[in-house]
From TrEMBL:
Keywords: Cell membrane, Glycosyltransferase, Lipopolysaccharide biosynthesis, Membrane, Transferase, Transmembrane, Transmembrane helix. The keyword Glycosyltransferase applies. InterPro entries: Glyco_trans_2-like (IPR001173), Glycosyltransferase_2 (IPR050256), Nucleotide-diphossugar_trans (IPR029044). GO terms for biological process: lipopolysaccharide biosynthetic process. SUPFAM superfamilies: Nucleotide-diphospho-sugar transferases (SSF53448). GO terms for molecular function: undecaprenyl-phosphate 4-deoxy-4-formamido-L-arabinose transferase activity. One of its GO terms (cellular component) is plasma membrane. This is Glycosyl transferase, group 2 family protein. Residues 14-177 form the Glycosyltransferase 2-like domain. It holds the Pfam family Glycos_transf_2. The chain crosses the membrane at residues 243-265, 277-298.
Length: 337
């Protein structure tokens, strides 16, 4: 590590870039990032996470790493997806501020100094807004406009562009987040929920120069499902126990009231209750109340198991290049010393 402490402006920068089959993009990508971060007068590292590429991308980034010690490479054993790759890069980052970005030159590293200035102002997370987004309208911009609008309504978190990967986050906050599925796009919301001071800045966006997008139409449905999960996680919906517990409680109250009615009518008025609808209501609501309660309980246990399961490492690492510390990739991150 080079000279580090020079007041608040000395915070080091870890640039994290997930890459999957981006062979042609690597030389220019490295050059662009290098040109910006080497001029910052801060310690820096550039972490490429190779997400199981099969087009020679790995060899290309390892060549770059051989000539520049600031470049570090995490090699996945197979393709795990952009979120897992970003999660790994964040976990392996060692400097104060993590910058995440795409590896296809759609983000512009010249935005980095402006984002770091915001962190220096005291923000914990700076997220980009691709106001001038260079993607097709019908299948990319329109669905994401609708999704962003919906998500900011549901979460009450004002945000224009959750899909923008260019972000600057204080490392300790980034490393606290558990990312899976398509979760990387919810980083600002998750961080905000944990008390991070977030700010949005307008960032540049370019059309993809080489290669094609790695996603098809299936992504939209995955994002919607993840939105539902996150809404649940952040307690925007009740927990299963609360939802079904309330239903169960309602049913049991109904069953008690009807039971009182049944007993009262039989004892006080001597009505023969055989086949009486009130008796039917009493029996049905008792059974339903019990059912709803147990459903809630099962749901609650399930939800807990599900989330504690996420603590398992969501990817497997084959090799690490240029890392100072000898990590053992087989040890889950939260159990490493
Ligand atoms: N990516 C990845 N793993 C994947 C798919 C994508 O690491 O399974 C990387 C990809 O190499 C790029 C970034 O994630 O650096 C964004 O991918 P892409 O450009 O395909 O997404 P889009 O810009 O279309 O949202
Ligand atoms: Mg892209």
């Amino acid at each position: 590590m080079e000279a580090s402490t020079r007041g608040s402006h000395s915070m080091g920068v870890s640039v994290v870039v997930p890459i999957y089959n981006e062979l042609e993009n690597i030389p220019l990508l490295y050059e662009q990032i290098h040109n910006v971060v080497s001029q910052l007068d801060r310690p820096y590292e550039i972490i490429f996470v190779d997400d199981g590429s099969n087009d020679g991308t790995l060899a290309r980034v390892q060549e770059v790493a051989a000539s520049d010690q600031h470049v570090k490479v995490v090699e996945f054993r197979r393709n795990y997806g952009q979120t897992a790759a970003m999660h790994a890069g964040i976990q392996y980052a060692s400097l104060d501020v993590v910058i995440t970005m795409d590896g296809d030159l759609q983000n512009d590293p010249t935005d980095i100094p402006m984002m770091l200035a915001k962190i220096d102002e005291g923000y914990d997370l700076v997220h980009g807004w691709r106001k001038n987004r260079q993607d097709t309208f019908i299948n990319r911009k329109l669905p994401s406009k609708i999704a962003n609008w919906l998500i900011s309504k549901v979460t009450k978190f004002p945000i224009h562009d959750l899909g923008c990967t260019l972000k600057a986050v204080r490392r300790e906050i980034a490393q606290e987040l558990e990312l899976y599925g398509e979760m990387h796009r919810f980083i600002p919301i998750l961080a905000h929920q944990r008390g991070a001071r977030c700010v949005e800045v307008v960032t540049q966006h370019h059309a993809r120069r080489f290669g094609t997008t790695k996603y098809g139409i299936g992504r939209t449905t995955r994002v919607v499902l993840d939105l539902l999960t996150i809404a649940y996680m952040l307690n925007f919906f009740s927990s299963p126990m609360k939802l079904f517990g309330r239903l169960g409680l309602g049913c049991l109250m109904l069953s008690m009231a009807s039971a009182l009615g049944v007993v009262g009518m039989k004892l006080a008025a001597g009505v023969d209750m055989t086949g009486n609808p009130l008796l039917l209501l009493c029996v049905l609501s008792t059974i339903m109340g019990g059912q709803f309660f147990s459903l809630g309980m099962i749901g609650e246990v399930n939800a807990r198991i599900y989330y504690s399961d996420q603590r398992k490492q969501p990817y497997a690492v084959r090799s690490l290049t240029n890392f100072e510390h000898d990590y053992d990739p087989s040890v889950p991150l939260d159990r490493r010393v």
